[in-house]
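Here is one chain, start to finish.
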Amino acid sequence: MDLKDIQALIRFISTSGVDEVSIERKDFKLNIKKNAKSADVVVSSQQVHYAPAVPNVPARVETVAVQDAVKTIAEAEPAVSSKLIEIKSPMIGTFYRSSGPDKGLFVNVGDDVNTGDTVCIIEAMKLFNEIESEIKGKIVKVLVDNATPVEYDQPLFLVDPS
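Its structure:
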């Protein structure tokens, strides 16, 4: 998770009705809490804890403390191979991995995709838009949880083209 991802998450929390978000990965844990008095950002990586109090979280947060915490996380997180290609969201909306709750997923990790294969659906303004792969390869990682909001140009999948 890089600084851009954390900033996007903070912007999302500040504009939505969500008061708290927690993300846990094997190498780090990120907790963001919002309330009327202050906002706490807690980032920990390999037993390193940092908790600055940021009063009235603005729409855009660029503090040195958050940048330092992200650098620590980036160092702990294994580097993503440069040969992987991202399938990005072409619009703002809600991400769905299948066409319905009782339907199978379009793609899973390890599946081969061809150019033009549907990989997900993004709902925007009550319209369901099928998102097709622009590359041929193997799905390495799904970067977004099902039924969650996505932004324009947000990475959705990592694909190995080899």
